[in-house]
Write a structure and sequence with these properties.
Layout: H1 3-15, H2 22-28, H3 35-46, E1 51-56, E2 59-64, H4 69-73, H5 84-96, E3 99-100, H6 101-108, H7 114-122, E4 126-131, E5 139-143, H8 145-150, H9 162-165
Antiparallel strand pairs: 1-2, 3-5, 4-5
Helix pairs in contact: 1-3, 5-6, 5-7
């Protein structure tokens, strides 16, 4: 594969504000070049450097090498943290999507302020995905590609399993067996 092909692919991924899907990259390449080979070559080229090519949110992007994160945190401002209610709601949406606001409230066991939905929308982490076919036709909410990119996920299958998130969950005790009084 030519150096010009690699340079062009590198420039596209670098200039893109969002992860570049392989199909978009393939459209830029000559017909006789396999896009997967280009991705592998770029990954190898940047391995061990300050930035690395990673697959996230269904596409390719450059990210800071993980071992440099601590040094950069001293200089580069971190994105604004979401409030706890927003993170809880986002987790529910991610694992149960598409989900309605009443369903989120039921799972959380608390009401959901409009400001929480607004914060998630403003951050580009959720988006409406139609309406549920029930009386009142509530909005269905789902995560966005921005959610995947923010959390460094290729797709939703990369979310941790729910079982893995339980911290020291005690094993459930068997139900006591009732004995009849004789």
């Amino acid at each position: 594969m030519s150096e010009e092909v690699l340079r062009t692919a590198e420039a596209l991924v670098f200039a893109a504000s969002e992860p570049v899907p392989l199909r978009v990259l393939a459209a830029l390449l000559p017909e006789n070049v396999a896009v997967e080979d280009v991705a592998v070559a770029l990954r190898e080229r940047f391995a061990g450097r300050g930035v690395e090519l990673v697959e996230t949110a269904g596409g390719l992007s450059f990210r800071t090498a993980p071992d440099l994160a601590a040094a950069l945190k001293k200089i580069v401002p971190s994105p604004r943290r979401l409030p706890r209610a927003a993170m809880e709601s986002l987790a529910i949406i991610a694992y149960h999507q598409p989900v309605t606001r009443p369903e989120i409230e039921e799972i959380r066991g608390a009401s959901l302020a409009q400001a929480t939905i607004d914060a998630l929308l403003e951050a580009g982490l959720i988006a409406p995905r139609g309406r549920k076919e029930v009386p009142g036709r509530p909005t269905l909410w789902a995560t966005t590609p921005g959610f995947l990119a923010q959390f460094g996920l290729r797709d939703l299958r990369d979310l941790p399993r729910r079982e893995d998130l339980l911290v020291n969950a005690p094993p459930s005790a068997p139900a006591p067996v009732a004995t009849p009084d004789v």
